[in-house]
Amino acid sequence: MNEDKYIGMDVHQASIVCAVHSSQGKCIAHSIIETRAETVRDFLRGLSGTLHVTFEEGTQAAWLHDLVKPLVAELIVCNPRRNHLLKEGSKNDKVDASKLAELLRAGLVKSVYHGAPGVRPLKELAHADDQLTQDRVRVMSRLKALYRARAIVCAGTAPYSHAHRDEWLQQLTEPAPRQRATWLYAELDAIGELRREAHNRMLTEARPHPAFARLTGVPGLGPIRVAQLIAAVGSPHRFRTKRQFWAYCGLAVVTKSSADYQLVAGRVVRQARGMQTRGLNEQFNHRLKALFKSAVLEALKDATFKRYYERLRARGLRAELARVQVARKLAAVTLAVWKREAAYDAERVMQRAA
Known about the structure:
This protein has about 350 residues and is of the alpha/beta class. Helix content is about 50%, strand content about 15%. It contains 13 helices and 9 strands.
């Protein structure tokens, strides 16, 4: 009998706790296996029937996704932020695995996209570039903190300049703080060199991508941003509409309302203007939001986007909200160029913006 089986996996560094449920929701088995490729394969191959598997997005998710996918009928790497059932009642590894299996059987898990393996090298290089950028910013902050702790004014980028480092070091009269600053400068130089190498490797990996040349034609999207964009998105066809892409980029407007209806002469009437709060969505890809927010500043140097921005300002929109609107327009244009495999057309952008 080819019965459907729903398997929830609670994944940890050393072990994976698996719960197997039948199509009727009955728990058939619990297993604790080692977090090792061959062990996972043996476990899945030992189960009969049509296998449906889920586990939460995490450190081992990409590796486990590629391992499990060829062995099962359905695999969903689920978003842990949506699994509120796991927070209710008792909690341990077996309970969590059973709850995941039950959520999968009920169709209540929200999947996390795992793209084609072909983009994986670029994704890894983009992660390395992000981490080196964060490390560089961290060292720069420590340098400024060292100067500020001694009431030395250090605004702007002047403290990082190679040409004037000796002058800045001379302001640190004590030997120990000066030695700390010397080491921080050496660390900053080393990270800067690694970051340049990461940029070059990332660009080398991204340039053969079919969309690279077209996307670099979009205002505000230089080669580095396009490489990061391709690494983060993978395929534009995972987004059916621009609104889905806006939500992924953290540019979707979320409205929360209360007391929407009232009774008038015994009839239920929707209030003309209920109590509402508006804002951008809170769950998003942080790399893409930072990318489009920084790209807006470059895009506003382009005549097309500058006119669009000025038109929004003329309507009375505040500057920061107008920039969000330009970021949404830039994201929509980027998605359209990528999906349609067409070159950027400024006239078409202005016609749609009119």
